[in-house]
């Protein structure tokens, strides 16, 4: 059996003729940099609510997709897109109510000091813009991120995304700090160690003649392994960075829009007030819209020196979609649902942890959950191979998640905000059966 790029002989045997043809076409036309999920890749053709459907009509419970966060193809969003696309879709260099209505509604969800918003198409662009704004405001260039952070794909931001691995070198302007991992460092130590690491990073930048500009932190440390607790642990580090003249940029691409339950924004859980907040993924439920929300005084220098135009960012159709998303989050009270179902779901996972020693830790906030698998609870040695089997086993049984963390041994679970108890129960029962079969 020939090896299809990245697939072992056994994986390849499972592929249908259609799947094999699609993989070959992808590789021929999209080139070698793309990666597919799962050992047996999925051919998804339709989505509705919490479900994704493959080409054979088999349905999958989507517990991973943090883009269609209010449900796949939500009718309110689809209708808003359709209605606006029939009337006008231009850009931000004409007067238009759509962008302003949405911007005002969005800003109303932030602390009053975060009072201006600039639109982009992707989270990467939002982080890139945030970095440019921070550099203009501080006159510095240095950036501090966590050791396995992911912030995006532009050249500057990829150079500040250590999770991309050794093939994408960190920039000279970047310093990393340890992931604030309560499970491994101890909940009582996290705040202090995190602040100490930030202090060391600032000192090191200065020793190298680089003036620090900002501390850029993912509100749930998704790629570092889903690190949410203890709430408030970032305060010491952020206060210290501020005293040293750095800005605090909150990357809410993962943790924003009600994901962490009870709060609209991840930084609120930690009692923080960022200087810049970047948004993306769930903002348009699939329509490409992202943003940087900025304090007016922080934006002033950038606005004076630079002209900003983003051809597609904030166009009328994207703003209509994003507006509909906010209406659904607020109208269907998804904050409360996320908090309530998140707690119910986590309790179910903790029940499994009592029965399976493989589960070392269950953590997260709202409907962003991490389950760390270990070969032994004392040494906490990562169960990387078992994690791979669980992720693929769930996929075979119709439940979609992925993994994260330095050893890829943390189940990364992000169900839609519309999850109900029946969906949580189905997830728990399926995970139970996969773990049972693993032995
Ligand atoms: N920040 C974080 C925390 C992310 O997870 C991502 C995407 N995975 C980005 C930024 C980049 O967003 P995009 O893919 O829309 O450029």
UniProtKB/TrEMBL annotation:
Pfam families on file: Aminotran_3 (PF00202)
GO molecular function terms noted in the UniProt entry: pyridoxal phosphate binding; transaminase activity
Transferase listed as a keyword: yes
CDD domains (UniProt xref): OAT_like
Endpoints of the signal sequence: none
Cofactor(s) annotated in UniProt: pyridoxal 5'-phosphate
Keyword Transferase belongs to the record: yes
Keywords for the protein's UniProt record, in alphabetical order: Aminotransferase, Pyridoxal phosphate, Transferase
InterPro entries assigned to the protein according to its UniProt record, in alphabetical order: Aminotrans_3, Aminotrans_3_PPA_site, PyrdxlP-dep_Trfase, PyrdxlP-dep_Trfase_major, PyrdxlP-dep_Trfase_small
Family listed: Belongs to the class-III pyridoxal-phosphate-dependent aminotransferase family.
Protein name stated in the entry: Aspartate aminotransferase family protein
Taxonomic lineage from the root: Bacteria, Pseudomonadati, Pseudomonadota, Gammaproteobacteria, Pseudomonadales
């Amino acid at each position: 059996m020939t090896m299809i790029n990245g697939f072992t002989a056994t994986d390849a045997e499972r592929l249908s003729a259609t799947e094999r043809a699609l993989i070959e076409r992808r590789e021929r036309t999209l080139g070698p940099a793309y990666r597919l999920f799962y050992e047996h890749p999925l051919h998804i053709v339709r989505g509705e609510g919490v479900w994704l459907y493959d080409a054979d009509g088999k349905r999958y419970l989507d517990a991973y997709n943090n883009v269609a966060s209010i449900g796949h193809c939500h009718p309110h969003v689809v209708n808003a897109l359709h209605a606006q696309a029939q009337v006008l879709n231009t850009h931000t260099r004409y007067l238009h109510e759509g962008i302003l209505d949405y911007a005002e509604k969005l800003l109303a969800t932030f602390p009053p000091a975060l009072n201006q918003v600039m639109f982009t198409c992707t989270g990467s662009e939002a982080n890139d813009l945030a970095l440019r704004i921070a550099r203009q405001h501080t006159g510095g260039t240095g950036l501090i991120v966590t050791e396995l952070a992911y912030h995006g794909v532009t050249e500057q931001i990829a150079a500040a995304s250590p999770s991309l691995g050794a093939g994408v070198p960190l920039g000279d302007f970047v310093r990393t700090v340890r992931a604030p991992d309560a499970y491994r460092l101890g909940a009582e130590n996290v705040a202090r160690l995190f602040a100490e690491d930030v202090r060391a990073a600032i000192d090191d930048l200065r020793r190298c003649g680089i003036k620090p500009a900002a501390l850029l932190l993912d509100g749930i440390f998704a790629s570092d392994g889903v690190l949410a607790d203890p709430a408030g642990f970032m305060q010491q580090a952020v206060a210290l960075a501020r005293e040293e003249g750095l800005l605090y940029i909150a990357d809410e691409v993962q943790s924003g829009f009600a994901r962490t339950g009870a709060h609209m924004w991840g930084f609120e859980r930690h009692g923080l007030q960022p200087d810049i907040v970047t948004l993306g993924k769930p903002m348009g439920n699939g329509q490409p819209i992202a943003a940087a929300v900025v304090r007016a005084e922080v934006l002033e220098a950038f606005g004076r020196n630079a002209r900003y135009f983003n051809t597609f960012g904030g166009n009328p159709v994207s703003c209509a979609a994003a507006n509909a998303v906010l209406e659904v989050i607020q109208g269907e009270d998804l904050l409360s649902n996320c908090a309530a179902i998140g707690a119910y779901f986590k309790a179910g996972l903790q029940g499994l942890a009592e029965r399976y020693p493989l589960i070392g830790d269950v953590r997260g906030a709202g409907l962003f959950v991490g389950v760390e698998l270990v070969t032994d609870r004392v040494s906490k040695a990562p169960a990387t191979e078992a994690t791979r089997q669980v992720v693929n086993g769930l996929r075979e049984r119709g439940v979609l998640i992925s993994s994260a963390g330095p050893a890829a041994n943390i189940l990364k679970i992000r169900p839609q905000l519309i999850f109900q108890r029946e969906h949580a129960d189905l997830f728990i029962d399926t995970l139970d059966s996969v773990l049972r079969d693993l032995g």
